Amino acid sequence: MIIGLNRFNDYGDKITDIIQANSEIAISSAKFKLIGVACHTGTATSGHYFYFKPPNIIFNDATIASETPNINKLGYIFL
């Protein structure tokens, strides 16, 4: 399952509401294992995307690092 969030309002302002996502995402009675999150930093007109693979790997352009970003605030697409 792919869950895409609308992180910008009609005026181009970033929506930074916290999304509670851990290693599992529950929707109604179904549970889904989180395998990765596309994250966005910046604004609607300028920003940067990176990919987070749990438990703590970030793929960011040409680098791979061992970090844990705030996916609950930066998460854009949950896989």
List the keywords.
79 residues, two-stranded antiparallel sheet, 5% helix, 6-stranded antiparallel β-sheet, mainly beta
Describe this structure as you would to a colleague:
By secondary structure, this protein is mostly beta strands. Helix content is 5%, strand content 44%. The protein has one helix at residues 71-74, and strands at 3-4, 24-27, 30-33, 37-42, 47-53, 57-60, 63-66, 75-78. The strands form 2 sheets. Strands 1-8-4-5-6-7 form a 6-stranded antiparallel beta sheet. A hairpin with a 2-residue loop joins β6 and β7 (63-66). The longest helix is centred in the last third of the chain and has 4 residues, at 71-74. The chain is flat.
Taken as a percent bin, the fraction of beta residues is 35-45%
Could you say which structural class the secondary elements and strand pairing correspond to?
mainly beta
The strand count comes to: 8
Strand order within the widest beta sheet: 1-8-4-5-6-7
Q: Secondary-structure blueprint of this entry?
A:
Blueprint: E1 3-4, E2 24-27, E3 30-33, E4 37-42, E5 47-53, E6 57-60, E7 63-66, H1 71-74, E8 75-78
Antiparallel strand pairs: 1-8, 2-3, 4-5, 4-8, 5-6, 6-7
